[in-house]
Design a protein that fits this description.
6-stranded parallel sheet; 2 domains; 7-stranded mixed sheet; 28% helix; Rossmann fold; Quinone Oxidoreductase, Chain A, domain 1; 26% strand
Length: 331
């Protein structure tokens, strides 16, 4: 038997609760690779899955959440992987529709795995996790659309969160001038340590204005907020610049006009990490190993264990988690 965080739904109230339970290997779902999980992490989507209503993502109970994990292959029916291989899993609706990484063992489809990249260990891979992968995919997309150091400051919204923290560290390491948006003044020193050269108070950007265009300010943007802030930022981009949209912490609506697209050639790029094709996923992990300073990554880490997860899930939905949570599932 082994330990896992299991969500069980109360039939009377319709609400689910999470607790650490012992389960048997034969209870794991079908799959062709069994992994001894070493570390997992906590993303916004994990908070939704851990919530009493499953955030609209979890439909079947009992359920094991955890959209990310890293560990060692124990058994494989797929030629691409053999026992002893180090692997990483992010996305593919694992932890939502399929049992996830908040467990000491997981059984999954081999197509969902990538080899642990050279230069990272399992713990570091989960300090990166979906949030860090999303940050790297965003940087790659902005670069593919012409962003280069020296063009002007790059804005990162939600900068003290998981995606924002990793994005700030990567961009600064690549030579970009980074402006970090935060609603938590106490995170300023943390963001400057990651490489931000400018701190922008959330209130400065958190409301729409009547003018569809403002002064050209940002050479690029990684936006984890959406809503009114994204609408405002679109009108502040320099000519031909791009915004990588990665989140909706500020709402799914977009009260904007098409004027920035038509008069300034601004690009709005959607970033999906869940169903990202294997080749681009592998490219992003290799870039992370090369372009994310490990000392900056370590500075983001908040260690946790399985029993901490119900509270951490609630905290991340309230915006109370800074940096990256790394869960040692065997501690």
């Amino acid at each position: 038997m082994f330990n896992a965080v299991v969500m069980n739904k109360d039939e009377d109230s319709g609400l689910a609760t999470a607790s650490v339970e012992q389960i048997e290997l034969d209870q794991l779902p079908e799959g062709n690779v069994t992994v001894a999980v070493e570390y997992s992490t906590v993303n916004y989507k994990d908070g939704l899955c851990l919530s009493p209503k499953g955030g609209g993502l979890v439909r079947k109970y009992p359920h094991i959440p955890g959209i990310d994990f890293a560990g060692t292959v124990e058994a494989s029916e797929d030629d691409r992987y053999k026992p002893g291989d180090k692997v990483v899993l992010t996305g593919w609706r694992v932890g939502e529709a399929f049992w996830g990484g908040y467990s000491q063992k997981a059984r999954v489809n081999a197509d969902w795995l990538v080899p642990l990249p050279t230069g990272l260990d399992s713990r570091q891979a989960m300090a990166v996790g979906t949030a860090g992968l999303t940050a790297m995919l965003s940087v790659m997309a902005l670069e593919d659309h012409g962003m280069k150091p020296g063009q002007g400051p790059v804005l990162v919204t939600g900068a003290a969160g998981g995606v924002g923290s990793v994005a700030t560290a990567i961009l600064a390491n690549l030579g970009y001038e980074v402006a970090g948006v935060t609603g938590r003044p106490e995170t300023e020193a943390y963001l400057r340590d990651l490489g931000a050269t400018q701190i922008v108070a959330r209130d400065e950007l958190n409301e729409t204005v009547k003018r569809p265009l403002e002064s050209e300010t940002w050479a690029g943007c990684i936006d984890a907020v959406g809503g009114e802030m994204l609408a405002r930022v679109l009108g502040q981009m320099i000519y031909g610049a791009s915004v990588a949209a990665v989140g909706l912490a500020g709402g799914a609506g977009l009260p904007a006009t098409v004027i920035p697209f038509l008069l300034r050639g601004v690009n709005l790029l959607g970033i999906d990490s869940v169903m990202q094709p294997y080749d681009n996923r592998l490219r992003a992990w290799e870039r992370l190993a090369a372009d994310l300073p490990m000392e900056k990554l370590e500075a983001m880490v908040n260690p946790a264990v399985l029993s901490d997860l119900p509270q951490l899930g609630a905290d991340i939905l309230k915006g109370q988690v800074k940096g990256r949570v790394v869960v040692d599932v065997n501690a």
